[in-house]
Amino acid sequence: MNKTHEAVMVKEVLTYLLGDKSGKYVDCTFGAGGHSALLLESLQNDGSLVGLDKDPEVKQRIPRLLQDDKRFSFINDSFSNLPNHIEEGSLDGILIDLGISSTQLDEAGRGFSFQDSGPLDMRMNQEEGLSAEQWINSATQKEIETVLWKLGEERASRKIAKIICDKRIKRPIESTQDLVDIILSCLPRRGKKHPATNVFRAIRMQVNHELEELYSVLESAGFLLKTGGRIAVISFHSIEDRVVKRFLQGKDRISSTVSYSAIGGKHIKPSREEIRTNPRSRSAILRVAEKAA
After folding, report:
1. Residue 5: which pLDDT band, with cuts at 50, 70 and 90?
2. N or C, where is the chain less crowded by C-beta within 10 Å?
3. Angle at 229 between CA 225 and CA 233, to 5 degrees
4. How are strands ordered across the β-sheet holding 225-235?
5. Beta strand 285-291 pairing with 225-235
6. Beta-bridge partners for 17
7. Could you tell me which CATH number the domain at 125-207 has?
8. What is the pLDDT of residues 205-247, one digit of tens each?
9. Neighbours of 195 (CB within 10 A)
10. What contacts 105, CB < 8 A, 6 or more positions away?
11. Span 119-139, mean pLDDT?
12. CA angle at residue 275 from 271 to 278, to 5 degrees?
């Protein structure tokens, strides 16, 4: 069943990110275009918005309303490559909505979902890098165990990694259902959360190098934003949020020495009404900060 993707915390993003409605903004995770459409609607005629997405299929789904708007342009690339497309010190705002869109989850052929059987792919761009199938059938048991623990916070990481390696000796693990069956053999179903949630998230993050990409775009943001420009990041689990929080505090930097001041409080959570109408927003955390120097 196809589900309509709803952009998360739109009202809060519009309130805290748009410091200058005549400015230049980048939506680093265009996805289904929900945030971009409303950002563009809020900008003045002399404002502009660049949509960016790693998934090449996204370009085929850009709403006609955006395509026809001269203030909007789209780039098919990873947000870690943002400096290749944007002039230093030219941006008034950067939006990053981490995670995966409902559109991608609904396509069984992409391999992101544990709800529908499909090829075990999980790549944002299926033309680049190792698929989840290739990685899970070639990584060592220790590598798999480490990824499931560090990126998925999966307590049964050792047990699952061992069974994966035992099973693939007899037959390669090729589908999402193959992986779900392995997980369910280790973890009983309790409560609403599916036992495969953490494992699928961890492998997806590994295959797409999501933490490395996040560190890279955060570093770049300081150089691309004007003084007074703002960055807004929506994360959906503690690992990503911790990276964002520490970076904005001036920790875990590589080269950036930019100072930021928090906008809207330390972090912003969705309203009860939004959680009620869009359950996907329940775990969302928005952090907005302004470049001070």
Report:
1. low
2. N
3. 85
4. 72-76, 48-53, 24-27, 91-97, 225-235, 285-291, 260-268
5. antiparallel
6. none
7. 1.10.150.170
8. 999 999 999 999 999 999 999 999 999 999 999 999 999 999 9
9. 20
10. 3, 112, 113, 115
11. 95
12. 130
**Owner of token pair 């370009």:** 59
37 pLDDT tier (thresholds 50, 70, 90): very high
pLDDT confidence bin for 4, thresholds 50/70/90 = very low
| Assigned token pair, 86 | 């944007």
Taking the CB of residue 284, how many other CB atoms lie within 10 A of it? Answer: 23
Mean of pLDDT values over 256-279: 92
Whose CA is closest to 281, among 272, 290, 289?
Answer: 272
Residue extents of the structural domains in the chain: 10-102+210-291, 125-207
Residue type, 203: I
Confidence class for position 254, pLDDT limits 50, 70, 90: confident
- List all residues 6 or more positions away from 253 whose beta carbon is below 8 Å from its beta carbon: 219, 247
Contact 32, 7 (CB under 8 A): yes
**What are the residues facing 96 on neighbouring strands?**
233
- 3.40.190.10, 3.30.1360.40, 3.30.390.50, 3.40.50.150: which CATH number matches 10-102+210-291? 3.40.50.150
Cβ-proximal residues to 78 (8 Å cutoff; 6+ apart), any chain: 54, 125, 213
Rounded CA separation 137/271 (Å) = 42
Q: Which residues contact 166 (CB under 8 A, 6 or more apart)?
A: none
Adjacent-strand bridge partners of 73: 50
The 10s digit of each residue's pLDDT in 169-185 is 999 999 999 999 999 99
